[in-house]
Amino acid sequence: MCADSSREKGARGEEVARKYLVAEGIKILDVNFHARRGEIDIVARDGDTIVFVEVKAATHTSFGDPLTWIPSWKQERIIKASMVYLKAKGLTDSPLRFDVIAVEPDRKVFHVRDAFRPGDSFSL
C-alpha cells in the first residue's frame, strides 16, 4: 500500500476544513484561488469579513507552535494573492482576516482566527 501523496493529504485536509467552516456558519466563496503571486486554499465570508484560509494537513498528531506553521514568505504570498482576489471580485472595501486551519490525521480541526496580518505596506 502506497503512502498518500502530499496533494491527496492536502485535498482531504481542505475538504475537512471546508465542512468545518460551513458548520461554523462561514460561507465558502472560493477554493484553491490561484494568482501569479500565490495561492489561497479557501476564501470565505464570516459575516461582513472576507476570510482567507490557509489549510495545513498534519502527518503527525502534534503541530507544535502555530506561529511556525506559515513562514513569513508564505504569509506574504497569501497576502499578495488576497489583494488580487479582492480587486478581481470588487471586494476592496470589505474587512478581511487571515486564518489558519490545521487538520490532524484523525480529522480533528484546530482553527486559528486572525493568525497573521498584512504589514504596513499592504494596500489595495
Quick summary of this structure?
The chain has 124 residues and is an alpha+beta fold.
Which features characterize this protein?
single chain; Trna Endonuclease, Chain: A, domain 1; five-stranded mixed beta sheet; 124 residues; globular
Would you give an account of this structure?
The protein is an alpha+beta fold and 124 residues long. The chain has a single domain, classed as 3-Layer(aba) Sandwich (Trna Endonuclease, Chain: A, domain 1). 28% of the residues lie in helices and 35% in strands. It contains 2 helices and 5 strands; from the N terminus they run H-E-E-E-H-E-E. The chain has helices at residues 6-23, 72-88, and strands at residues 27-35, 38-46, 49-57, 96-103, 109-116. A 5-stranded mixed β-sheet has the order 1-2-3-4-5. Strand 2 (38-46) and strand 3 form a beta hairpin. It is globular and about 40 Å long. The mean pLDDT is 86.
What is the H/E string? HEEEHEE
Q: Give the overall silhouette.
A: globular
User: Could you name the CATH class?
Assistant: Alpha Beta
- Characterize the main sheet: 5 strands, mixed
Average pLDDT, rounded to a whole number, is 86
The name of the CATH topology is: Trna Endonuclease, Chain: A, domain 1
Structural domains: how many: 1
- Class per helix and strand makeup: alpha+beta
Question: In angstroms, what is the radius of gyration?
Answer: 14 Å
**Largest sheet: spatial strand order:** 1-2-3-4-5
So, CATH architecture?
Answer: 3-Layer(aba) Sandwich
Q: Approximately how much beta-strand content do the residues carry?
A: 25-35%
Q: Could you list the spans in which at least 5 consecutive residues all have pLDDT below 50?
A: none
Q: Determine the N-to-C terminus distance.
A: 48 Å
